[in-house]
């Protein structure tokens, strides 16, 4: 550490670990080059009292408590220990009912077990907590076990972990405390002598009572067994640390080895899977010996000139950080390698093992510069610790090596083992598995639901609302409601509707269920189990603007409440945790004992508050939605009035449904450069993730800042194309930058995600590649902040952020920007203008509509429907099917019945028309679309007898019709085709599928005053030629989809929004033209029946419960399989025909105008000439 640099200033340092010492030694590393040598030093400490006991593995100490009068809620045991053994019992506390707590060292970790009855079997019992690592390092470690009411706290050094006291120990207290062994009742011999502690204890306190001091004083309550001493005579082993790949230890060979007997032993510990332990050259240039670790196994190799003469391997898992002993012995042509005193590997060899007399032993690696020495290391250098190096049974004096009186070394730390367990405590969050090497650790985040260097960042979005605004449609999604917080992801169904985005959580029974009366009980109990955990459910409900759950009760002579005294027969339990009992139904007020009909005053009998309470001998129901969030979800249901003769009932509890993510739309608008919001200090010492959305027109601004004494964290827009994330945790300021090629101050929403953990810092902006900055391996890791968290600016900065910040989350917690903005000058809650960012999600001429929280897509002028106007509206036609859409009735021009139709009319009376549709048919000729006017004008699209698209225009009543034919052939091939026809004045363009556009001209150039639009069969023939009238009356057989004439969508109006303007003749069935089915088979289209035939014996009011018989289901299943096989075969055949015809068509059609076409002013969409959308593609299975 640096000292002071002048005569006046004071430099103060606090030691990370307390030091207990009699003397203090200072080693000057450098002097002030501009001053004089001097020292002024002051040390602050306190008096320290030490009571020490030593245990040799056979001794122990037993403390028996005196009879106590009352149970106490607090007990504590504390001590310090040091040992060289990685296993052994520290404490065994036994209480009443043969329950005990056992604190033992196991592989260098402290494990606390709860044991019951006999412990002589050696079973550890139930593990309560594991803490610490590498505690066999010959250093003092502080341990405290404390019981506080219903919790146990275990502290090892400065780390504390809390566990819940098992129910069996709720009123348990200690009456016997065994130290260093598990002692029997007779206090003679330990039960498990192989698990005794070997080492030293200091200041063993039970409730502030020093037991070692009592043992010294000869207290009858404390009994020392075996050779326990009141001193610490633990042997000292000198260890050496190989810090990097250049480390090595060089020792001379022994002259006694020339006899042929060689013995080398050592102990090592490491985290690396590979590393050289020892190498030396053999006599007479017979080769070299390599003893090394590879794939966590010990291997011995003798090689000469690159050729392996002998290989042995033994051991496994040697990179576990524990001490492992290795012995290499050779005599009389017999070579053996032993690991941890196991039998190891043995080989017979004629190769003389003794090293050459002038060679050297190299441990851990070779010198970087040979210096004339023969040392070759084909394996990576060893990184770890070694001790107890023995040559022919004699321990090497490493202190002599340190003093350069024996051998040589480089890059070693002698007299210490510098191994660090980087996985204890583990920095891997959310169940990530930690693995490590000598200098680093790695987190395996698979199957955790999280990602990043420490499994901190959530893999899934926090709500269905976020998925919708990424362009996703309805389906099952994993949502992580608190981001990087402790709540796990859950699988839900997201229903993206045009109005709302619903999150739906099912339970174990959402079906209508009949109530079976039981002779044993007068009540029926039903419990509803949700796959989501309690915290997941409560967080979804609290973060949603609205939640609801259907609760339906169908009854026949089955009451909900007693009509005499109002006592409820039935009730339900709902709400957080175990829930509360409720007796209101539907949207009635809690505690009102009312149903929905009572609230609306429309019950069957006005003297009752529920329909079922009227006790009629007919089926009725009380059904409604529960919308009180604090009462949701429904957890159980109790039905009482079901045991009387004639009583029947059924119930249904629907899934939990919520919409409106309050966090996602929580926003603030900063309209002054000096304005800012402030929040409490951000606590992200080891892991910090920050995410938000912003939009601005300013080129720079501060998003967020939190300061400490020296540490800080900051995110800012440094320029119109760059976001900077900067911080300092004590290693100096670091910056992570993301540069965008496009400007970020375009008044559109942009997302920012910044994360800092002990391994790295990352910054993500929109979908740009993430920027990463690795943290120093052994630097400071704790981010220590103490000021307020400032958003949008700070009190010290003159220029802050101008614009909107939305959905700001810090470590999974959303800051309520709107609440704070409502009371802060210069900041307004909320932020309008979402269509500038999300309008592109509205497809197929859908129009983005602003909402207070988000947006919606208006599909009224689109031929599609759905949340993003992405779902095709398709119908299957028979030859007799006709859909007529009346655009203008006679004399309607003067009425202008609605502004909507007036605007549509003004669009289509321009000197041009815009037609698009998709179709699939196998029959020709066939009319597709017919447009008529009041002045004997018409437009018709049809497939002619040559299977080509034909468009006929008659724009002037005194002229003949003009026929335009496309050169694209074979359109009646049963495949899906998309057609676009556009006219501007006398210029017309055809676009069919992905073929080249075709351009035509007509002689007439007049306005087309539209009267009606007809799809399929044309019933009227007035003004049509004889051949056209016959063709139009033949009708269309197949599937039509996404039909649009200007802003009018006649097929959509007929199927989804029928009104007085639409009339349908014949049968038309909603279907999917993209589905692989036979186009000309009307019966082949899949439909869902709207009614079910029921037996006449069923009460018309009775709910349908399990009305389908099993044998019908079986027959239906067989029929479905047969139909599936036939349809698949037909689809494969149709696919083959389509491919052959498409090849022929591409060979025949030539490009009319392959260059850029003419732009038409009536086209409101830049992509209006695009071909099939994703929803119009043809799929074969």
TrEMBL record:
<dbReference type="InterPro" id="IPR000742">
    <property type="entry name" value="EGF"/>
</dbReference>
<feature type="domain" description="Laminin G">
    <location>
        <begin position="888"/>
        <end position="1073"/>
    </location>
</feature>
<keyword id="KW-0732">Signal</keyword>
<feature type="transmembrane region" description="Helical">
    <location>
        <begin position="1113"/>
        <end position="1137"/>
    </location>
</feature>
<dbReference type="InterPro" id="IPR036056">
    <property type="entry name" value="Fibrinogen-like_C"/>
</dbReference>
<dbReference type="GO" id="GO:0016020">
    <property type="term" value="C:membrane"/>
</dbReference>
<feature type="domain" description="F5/8 type C">
    <location>
        <begin position="1"/>
        <end position="46"/>
    </location>
</feature>
<feature type="domain" description="Laminin G">
    <location>
        <begin position="52"/>
        <end position="232"/>
    </location>
</feature>
<keyword id="KW-0245">EGF-like domain</keyword>
<keyword id="KW-0812">Transmembrane</keyword>
<keyword id="KW-1015">Disulfide bond</keyword>
<feature type="domain" description="EGF-like">
    <location>
        <begin position="832"/>
        <end position="870"/>
    </location>
</feature>
<feature type="domain" description="Fibrinogen C-terminal">
    <location>
        <begin position="455"/>
        <end position="507"/>
    </location>
</feature>
<feature type="domain" description="Laminin G">
    <location>
        <begin position="238"/>
        <end position="417"/>
    </location>
</feature>
<dbReference type="InterPro" id="IPR002181">
    <property type="entry name" value="Fibrinogen_a/b/g_C_dom"/>
</dbReference>
<feature type="domain" description="Laminin G">
    <location>
        <begin position="666"/>
        <end position="831"/>
    </location>
</feature>
<feature type="disulfide bond">
    <location>
        <begin position="804"/>
        <end position="831"/>
    </location>
</feature>
<dbReference type="Pfam" id="PF02210">
    <property type="entry name" value="Laminin_G_2"/>
</dbReference>
<protein>
    <submittedName>
        <fullName>Contactin associated protein like 3</fullName>
    </submittedName>
</protein>
<dbReference type="InterPro" id="IPR001791">
    <property type="entry name" value="Laminin_G"/>
</dbReference>
<keyword id="KW-1133">Transmembrane helix</keyword>
<dbReference type="Pfam" id="PF00008">
    <property type="entry name" value="EGF"/>
</dbReference>
<keyword id="KW-0472">Membrane</keyword>
<keyword id="KW-0677">Repeat</keyword>
<dbReference type="InterPro" id="IPR050372">
    <property type="entry name" value="Neurexin-related_CASP"/>
</dbReference>
<feature type="domain" description="EGF-like">
    <location>
        <begin position="419"/>
        <end position="456"/>
    </location>
</feature>
<dbReference type="InterPro" id="IPR013320">
    <property type="entry name" value="ConA-like_dom_sf"/>
</dbReference>
<dbReference type="InterPro" id="IPR000421">
    <property type="entry name" value="FA58C"/>
</dbReference>
<comment type="similarity">
    <text>Belongs to the neurexin family.</text>
</comment>
């Amino acid at each position: 550490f640096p000292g002071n640099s002048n005569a006046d200033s004071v430099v103060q340092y606090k030691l990370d670990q307390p030091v207990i010492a009699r003397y203090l030694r200072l080693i000057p590393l450098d002097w002030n080059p501009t001053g004089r040598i001097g020292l002024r030093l002051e040390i602050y400490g306190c008096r320290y009292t030490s009571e020490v006991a030593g245990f040799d593995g056979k001794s122990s100490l037993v403390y028996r408590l005196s009879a106590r009068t009352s149970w106490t809620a607090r007990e504590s045991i504390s001590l310090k220990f040091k040992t060289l053994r990685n296993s052994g019992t520290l404490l065994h506390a036994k209480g009443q009912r043969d329950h005990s707590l056992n604190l033992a060292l196991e592989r260098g970790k402290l494990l606390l077990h709860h044991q019951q009855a006999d412990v002589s079997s050696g079973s550890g019992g139930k593990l309560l907590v594991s803490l610490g690592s590498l505690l066999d390092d010959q250093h003092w470690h502080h341990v405290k076990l404390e019981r506080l009411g219903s919790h146990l706290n275990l502290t090892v050094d400065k780390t504390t972990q809390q566990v819940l006291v098992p129910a069996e120990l709720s009123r348990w207290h200690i009456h016997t405390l065994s130290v260093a062994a598990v002692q029997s009742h007779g206090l003679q011999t330990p039960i498990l002598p192989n698990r005794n502690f070997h080492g030293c204890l200091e200041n063993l306190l039970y409730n502030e009572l020093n037991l070692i001091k009592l043992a010294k004083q000869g207290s009858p309550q404390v009994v020392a067994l075996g050779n326990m001493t009141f001193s610490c005579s633990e042997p000292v082993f000198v260890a050496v640390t190989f810090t990097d790949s250049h480390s090595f230890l060089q020792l001379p060979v022994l002259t006694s080895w020339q006899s042929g007997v060689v013995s080398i032993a050592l102990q090592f510990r490491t985290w690396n899977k590979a590393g050289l332990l020892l190498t030396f050259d053999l006599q007479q240039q017979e080769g070299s010996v390599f003893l090394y670790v590879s794939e966590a196994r010990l291997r011995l190799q003798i090689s000469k000139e690159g050729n392996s003469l002998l290989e042995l391997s033994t051991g496994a898992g040697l990179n576990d950080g524990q001490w492992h002993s290795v012995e290499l012995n050779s005599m009389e042509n017999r070579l053996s390698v032993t690991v941890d005193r196991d039998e190891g590997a043995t080989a017979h060899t004629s190769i003389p093992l003794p090293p050459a007399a002038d060679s050297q032993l190299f441990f851990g690696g070779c010198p970087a510069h040979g210096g004339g020495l023969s040392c070759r290391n084909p394996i990576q250098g060893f990184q770890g610790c070694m001790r107890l190096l023995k040559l022919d049974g004699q321990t090497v004096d490493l202190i002599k090596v340190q003093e350069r009186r024996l051998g040589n070394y480089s890059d070693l730390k002698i007299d210490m083992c510098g191994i660090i367990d980087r996985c204890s405590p583990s920095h891997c969050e959310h169940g990530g598995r930690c693995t490590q090497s000598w200098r680093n650790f790695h987190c395996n985040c698979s199957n955790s639901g999280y990602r990043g260097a420490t499994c901190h960042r959530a893999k899934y979005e926090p709500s269905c609302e976020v998925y919708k605004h990424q362009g996703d449609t309805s389906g099952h999604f994993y949502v992580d409601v608190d981001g990087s917080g402790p709540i796990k992801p859950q699988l839900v169904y997201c229903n993206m509707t045009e109005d709302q985005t619903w999150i739906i959580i099912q339970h174990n029974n959402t079906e209508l269920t009949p109530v079976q009366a039981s002779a044993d009980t007068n009540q029926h109990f039903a419990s509803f189990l949700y796959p989501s955990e309690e915290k997941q459910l409560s967080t979804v409900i609290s973060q949603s603007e609205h939640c609801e759950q259907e609760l339906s009760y169908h009854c026949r002579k089955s009451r909900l409440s007693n009509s005499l005294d109002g006592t409820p027969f039935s009730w339900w339990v709902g709400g957080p945790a175990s829930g509360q009992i409720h007796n209101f139904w539907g949207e009635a007020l809690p505690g009102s004992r009312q149903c929905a009909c009572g609230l609306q005053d429309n019950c069957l009998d006005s003297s009752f508050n529920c329909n079922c309470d009227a006790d009629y001998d007919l089926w009725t129901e009380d059904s409604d939605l529960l919308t009180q969030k604090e009462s949701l979800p429904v957890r159980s249901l109790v039905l009482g009035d079901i045991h009387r003769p004639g009583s029947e009932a059924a119930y249904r509890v629907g899934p939990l449904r919520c919409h409106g993510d309050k966090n996602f739309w929580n926003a603030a608008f900063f309209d002054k450069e000096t304005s800012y919001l402030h929040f409490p200090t951000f606590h992200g010492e080891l892991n910090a993730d920050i995410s938000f959305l912003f939009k601005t027109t300013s080129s720079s601004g501060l998003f967020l800042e939190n300061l400490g004494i020296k540490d800080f964290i900051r995110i800012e827009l440094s320029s119109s194309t760059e976001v900077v994330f900067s911080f300092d945790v004590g290693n100096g300021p670091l910056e992570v930058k993301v540069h965008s090629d496009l400007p970020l101050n375009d008044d559109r929403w942009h997302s920012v995600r910044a994360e800092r953990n002990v391994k790295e810092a990352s910054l993500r902006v929109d979908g740009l590649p993430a920027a990463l900055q690795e943290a120093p391996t052994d630097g400071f890791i704790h981010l220590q902040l103490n000021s307020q968290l400032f958003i949008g600016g700070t009190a010290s900065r003159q220029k802050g952020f101008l614009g909107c910040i939305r959905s700001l989350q810090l470590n999974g917690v959303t800051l309520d920007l709107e609440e704070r903005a409502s009371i802060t000058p210069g900041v307004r809650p909320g932020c309008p203008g979402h269509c500038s960012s999300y309008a592109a999600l509205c497809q197929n001429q859908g129009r983005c509509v602003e909402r207070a929280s988000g947006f919606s897509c208006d599909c009224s002028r689109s031929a599609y429907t759905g949340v993003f106007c992405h779902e095709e509206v398709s119908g299957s036609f028979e030859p007799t099917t006709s859909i007529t859409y009346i655009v203008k009735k006679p004399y309607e021009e003067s009425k202008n019945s609605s502004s909507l139709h007036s605007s549509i009319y003004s669009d289509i009376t321009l000197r041009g028309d815009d037609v698009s549709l998709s179709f699939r048919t196998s029959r020709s000729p066939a009319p597709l679309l017919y447009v008529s006017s009041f002045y004997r004008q018409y437009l018709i699209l049809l497939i002619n007898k040559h299977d080509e698209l034909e468009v006929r225009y008659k724009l002037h009543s005194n002229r003949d019709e003009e026929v335009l034919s496309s050169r694209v052939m074979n359109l009646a091939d049963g495949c899906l085709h998309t057609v676009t026809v556009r006219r501007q004045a006398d210029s017309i363009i055809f676009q069919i599928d992905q073929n080249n556009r075709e351009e035509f001209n007509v002689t007439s150039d007049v306005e087309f005053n539209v009267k009606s639009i007809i799809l399929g069969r044309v019933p009227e023939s007035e003004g049509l030629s004889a051949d056209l009238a016959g063709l139009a009356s033949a009708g269309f057989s197949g599937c039509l989809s996404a039909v649009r004439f200007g802003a009018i969508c006649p097929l959509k109006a007929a199927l989804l929004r029928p009104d007085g303007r639409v009339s349908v003749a014949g049968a038309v069935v909603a279907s999917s033209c993209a589905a692989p089915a036979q186009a000309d088979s009307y019966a082949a289209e899949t439909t869902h029946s709207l009614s079910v035939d029921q037996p006449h014996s069923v009460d018309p009011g009775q709910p349908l419960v399990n009305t389908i018989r099993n044998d019908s289901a079986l027959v239906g299943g067989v029929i479905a399989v047969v139909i599936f096989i036939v349809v698949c075969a037909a689809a494969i055949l149709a696919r083959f025909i389509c491919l052959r015809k498409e090849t022929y068509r591409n060979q025949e059609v030539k490009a009319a105008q392959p260059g850029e076409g003419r732009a038409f002013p009536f086209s409101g969409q830049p992509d209006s000439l695009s071909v099939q959308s994703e929803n119009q593609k043809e799929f074969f299975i």
